Amino acid sequence: MSVQKRRQRASAGAPRGLCFYDLDGTLVDFNLVHAALFIVTNLGEWSGRAAYLASLIARAPMLYRAEQFDRRLLNVVLFAGLRGVSRDRLWALGEEYCERVLIDRIYRQARELLDGNRAAGLEPVLVTGSPDFIVAPLARELGVADFAANRMIASRGIVTGRLMEPVMASTEKATWCASYAAARGVELRDCWGYADSYYDLPFLAPLGHPVAVNPDRRLEATALNRHWPIVRFVREREPFISYDNLMRIGNWFWGASDGAARE
Q: Which end of the chain is less packed: N or C, by CB atoms within 10 Å?
């Protein structure tokens, strides 16, 4: 299983219920492309940095489509280029990214939701396609003990650019949640799920209490049709970079002047 456990439970008894939370766009105003750029631009003298960033800019349209339609593909494409990077370095940068960026991007209402559900006896679990080296410090900040996240395959401490199976997306999320709940003696009908994308529908549908958070148009339509609750968290800061701005970032990286197009 693609799961990390940070501490032992105080009790072996089954919780009253489980809350499975998607992460990016649901609890955190989080853009995975921004995270990838942060990692790459802070890798120091890594020889593949320029080539990776150039490739990322060239694939901006594909990345946009992947985020909208295939989160699995987005993860595979974004982190495939990190081949040759030290796994320890990625974990250090994940901690730094969480401290410098993500903590300030947690929705205030999301913290209130987590606290309220805990008070009701519902144990929180993160289920996300984001990489574990970013999710782990954020889970710690949120006080969440267990999570499922994507993990990169490493050989002798160096990542290969490939993700371990199962890749956390869509039906894989649903399968993981079913196994996790069964191992703890909790019925799926007693579980809650929170997500923002229509492509998380296979993850939400089997749960007894699905909730659409900041839903895209198709998830909103599905939630309305199925009478699922819809909640909206307010963004309190400027949005992360858009795909249209990847070229500007590339110009900055290569030392071009502001707004100038790279020839």
A: C
